[in-house]
Every structure is written in C-alpha cells, then in structure tokens.
Amino acid sequence: MHPGLKGFVEPKSPFFFEPPVSIGKADIRPGVQMGMHSYINDGRLESGVYIGRYCSIGNFVSIGTGHHDMSLMSTSSWFTSGVKPSVKKTKDGCLVRILNDVWIGDKAIIMNGVTVGNGAIIGAGAVVTKDVDHYSIVTGIPAKHLKYRFSPEIVARLMKTRWWELDDQLLKTHVLTDIESSLEFLESISHTARTVQPKTIKV
Ligand SMILES: CC(C)(COP(=O)(O)OP(=O)(O)OC[C@H]1O[C@@H](n2cnc3c(N)ncnc32)[C@H](O)[C@@H]1OP(=O)(O)O)[C@@H](O)C(=O)NCCC(=O)NCCS
C-alpha cells in the first residue's frame, strides 16, 4: 500500500489520489479519483466516481451504482447481450461527482449522474437521485433539501475563499471555534496562501 494511502484492502487499479487519503474497508472500483484528506470507512465507490478534498464518508455508503439494461428481454447478467447499457453521467463526464468538504452519513446511496456541491451533508440512509446544492443538508428517500448549513451570506463568503485549494498545513494552524473567526482567518490569508496544486498519484 502506498504510504499516503491508508486502508485494509487495496483499491482496484487505476486509483488516482492526492495523499493522504483513507479507504478503510471500501471496495474501490477501477478509475476512482479521491482528493487529499478525504476518507471512506466502508462501502463501494463505482468506476468513474470523483471525490474532492476533505470529504468524510461513513459506513456502508454506495457512490455510483451498477446498471442493467431494462429494455431487453431480461435484466439478468446470465444473458450477455453485447450491448452496454447507457449509464447516467454528470455534465463533466463523471459517474458521480462529490466536491469538497462533503460529509456523507452511513448507508447513504448516491445514484449515477449526481453532483454533490461543496460543503454539503448527506443524511444517514439517504438515497440521492438529484444534484445537491453547495452547503445543503439533504435527507430521506429520495433525498430532499432539509436546510442549509449557513446563511446565504456565509455560504457566499466560504465559496469565495475556495479554502480547500489552500495550503493544508497553513489551514491546520487555525483552530475551528466558530464560523465567523474561520472566515476572518481565511479572508486574511486568501491572497498570500499558496494554492496547493494537485499532486495526483496513480496506483
Ligand atoms: C442529516 C443530519 C446531519 C441532520 O442533523 P441535525 O441538523 O442535527 O438534524 P435534526 O436531528 O435536528 O433533525 C432535523 C429533522 O430532520 C430529520 N432527520 C434528521 N436526520 C435524518 C435522516 N438521516 N434521514 C431522515 N430524516 C432525518 C429529523 O427527524 C428532523 O425532522 P423533523 O423536523 O420533522 O422532526 C443527521 O441527522 C445525520 O443523518 N447525520 C449522519 C450521521 C452518520 O451517519 N454518521 C456516521 C458517519 S460519520
């Protein structure tokens, strides 16, 4: 296992990541991408899933799902039709795109074609069938917007900082106490903090 990658099972190759990341006991299919400081405890990430930075993904979570052609005589994989079923994708061609600082609760399922915005929260047990707005909390089946984490003004300020692109060591010097002091810190460093360019590793 690469030193920047923690986990109990090897991801299927190719796996693209920015160290450090942790994949616990999850089944990572070929072609998944994961940004730094993101983790999943247990579950499955389908081929073509993109996970941004600082994402916290719980247990028994499925991101992206398999698909069977519903238009043929049978959906059983016993019959190989030779025709690949068309699968929903995001606008930028990922199976599912999870942006940065997203928290995904236990047993959530995120369906193909969905984009989850920065700072969003997916409640435990949710089935997400539609795109999720930045900093929105969604719950239920199908997942619906419950509330935003912050006021529109605070969300706009957070989005402007794009803090997930800044130097992670500098960010770590700040102790999280309340959102206003964090915003003041981010706004004070945003002109000088080095933007961390992705150093993606392929295993
Ligand atoms: C979504 C979540 C973050 C919301 O937390 P919260 O803001 O404290 O929410 P509340 O407990 O105040 O509940 C607000 C409402 O949403 C409902 N709700 C909360 N979580 C829900 C969920 N996962 N599914 C469905 N409804 C949920 C509550 O019943 C309540 O409904 P009501 O207003 O009709 O009474 C939280 O409930 C959750 O699911 N966290 C994930 C926990 C987890 O899986 N952890 C393991 C990974 S680290």
Structure description:
The protein is of the alpha/beta class and 203 residues long. The protein has one domain: Hexapeptide repeat proteins (UDP N-Acetylglucosamine Acyltransferase, domain 1). The protein has three helices and 19 strands. Strands 14-11-8-5-2-19 form a six-stranded mixed β-sheet, with no helix packed on it. A six-stranded mixed β-sheet has the order 6-9-12-15-17-18, with no helix packed on it. Helix 1 runs parallel beside helix 3. Coenzyme A binds next to strand 17.
Features:
13% helix, 203 residues, UDP N-Acetylglucosamine Acyltransferase, domain 1, alpha/beta, 24% strand, binds coenzyme A
Write the layout of secondary structure elements.
Blueprint: E1 5-6, E2 15-17, E3 21-22, E4 27-28, E5 32-34, E6 39-40, E7 43-45, E8 49-51, E9 56-57, E10 61-63, E11 96-98, E12 103-104, E13 109-110, E14 115-116, E15 121-122, E16 127-128, E17 136-139, E18 144-148, H1 152-161, H2 168-172, H3 179-189, E19 201-202
Helix pairs in contact: 1-3
Bound molecules: coenzyme A (COA).
The site of coenzyme A has 12 residues, from strand 17.
State the gist of this model.
Helix 1 (152-161) runs parallel beside helix 3 (179-189). It is globular and about 60 Å long. The protein is built from three helices and 19 strands.
The main sheet orders its strands as 14-11-8-5-2-19
Count of helices? 3
Q: Percent of residues in helical segments?
A: 10-25%
How much strand?
15-25%
Roughly how many Å apart are the termini? Answer: 9 Å
Which stretches of 5+ consecutive residues score pLDDT under 50?
A: none
CATH class: Mainly Beta
Structural class: alpha/beta
Order of helices and strands: EEEEEEEEEEEEEEEEEEHHHE
What is the overall shape? globular
How many domains is the backbone divided into? 1
Total beta-strand segments: 19
* Name of the CATH homologous superfamily: Hexapeptide repeat proteins
Largest sheet: 6 strands, mixed
Overall radius of gyration: 18 Å
Q: Which ligands, by name, code or SMILES, are bound? A: coenzyme A
| CATH topology group | UDP N-Acetylglucosamine Acyltransferase, domain 1
Mean pLDDT: 95
- CATH arch. level architecture: 3 Solenoid
